[in-house]
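Subject: Interface between my chains keeps coming out wrong

I've been trying for a while to get a sensible model of this assembly. When I model each chain on its own everything looks fine, but I need the whole thing in one frame so I can look at the contacts. Pasting all components below, labels as-is. Any help appreciated, I'm running out of ideas.
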Amino acid sequence: MTPPTTFKKKAIAPETVSRKTGLKAIVDCNSFYCSCERLFRPDLQHKPVVVLSNNDGCIVSRSDEAKLLGIAMAGPYFMAKPLIEQHGVTAFSSNYTLYGDLSWRVMETLRMITGKDKVEVYSVDEAFIDLPEMTEQEAADYALYIRKTVETWTGISVSVGIAPSKTLAKAANYIAKKNKQHTQCVYVIISEEEQYRALSSIRVIHLWGVGRAYADKLINMGITSAWELRNMSPEWAYKQLGGVVGLRLIKELRGIPSIAMREPLETKRMIASTRMFGSPVADIGSIKEAIATYTSLAAQKLRRQSCAARTVSIFIVAKEQDHSADFSYGNITSIHTTLPAATAVTNELIKPAVALVDRLFEEGKSYKKAGVMLSGLVPDNAIQGNLFVPEARQQGRFLMSVLDNINFSMRNDVVKFAASGTARNWKMRQELRSPRFTTRWEEMFEVK
DNA sequence: TCTGGGGTCCTAGGACCC
DNA sequence: TCTGGGGTCCTAGGACCC
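Reply #2:
Try treating it as a single job with all components included. I did that and got this:
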């Protein structure tokens, strides 16, 4: 079984061997946030529903009925408002506590069906699943089984795509969603004929890994369908589509898995907490309160993944003076500081973060957004073993875990740091939020 | 008047080291 | 006057994702 002596490390490209690697599934919740809201409002079944982003700024989820009315995804709420009122669309502010809980139930269901270590949670409403080799028919049956089980156990409807690679599975999922009656929300791409049929029907912009910039470029070159892209050479893709990224894309489209399944317990390398303000803020005190609050949020996330941070960055975004400016290129200023030692203790992060505000804030300007980023993350046990960490630090860590538990089970603002302030005139609008049915006793769903 | 909030990966270039 | 070849780490910026 030893390789021939002439074997050279780079001479043989293993991917040309086309080994049998099984299949990948992507399970994607249909209009996830809307589905969550409707779960507790059966009267809204088959009625148009939208869910808004933080601050009620954009539309981030639309039911099929809302899509049919022509309400744009990620469009500003105020622009869609006439359409929403005209058709009696129900709008909700986002309720992340509720969505997070339902997401967990969906993912648990998938883990119970397919095995704990087979599921890679990709986002709040999507997961990849590692599957063994199957025929096209077996895969279709299995996809249907997944869909029905998740729906029965959680009340959330999902679409399932199955293919040899993640990118093809995403493409299959796209077709499943596009054509719900016909596909029953499942689609499988395995054989070359099927790859041809499926990819010919998909525009490049709808591929996973192709965004606006690349799509424009491809269309300018006369490449419009996913099938045409698939048939370009790897060398061409390397040159035109961002090096190894493009190379991977082409391979994946040919059914050669090149994006690996991720370890389930992988941790984030950077943690951010940022928000728009409810209304523009011009005094430094309020900005500091906001930064302190975001820092404690970020610190909670940090501890949840058992890490500590070495670098603290903050940014603030000034309100544009002229209205012609493209809003996404706002007047953003940022600054960072490196701590003497990594920490996960909230007040050790708040202090430097708030100090940075003094260096960024300009008197006379008003601001619409601020944020905190924690990076240079290291596992927390790396610091716990440090002999030079004073006793007080250990106590600080204990206090933090108590605080996290309280905040998890009670209203988030019951316990907070004094630096976060109490007036909170900068906080975001959330006028249309539904109750946290599944995680707050006092807001639990009532059966009549 | 009103436009989200997270993230990831990759590349290039500079500083610095041996 | 000559001025290598490798490596690491960091930062900025671009592209993408949900």
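Reply #3:
Confirming on my end. Residues 52-58, 60, 74-79, 81, 94, 123, 242-245, 268-276, 327-328, 369, 371 of chain A lie near DNA strand B (CB under 10 Å from a C1').
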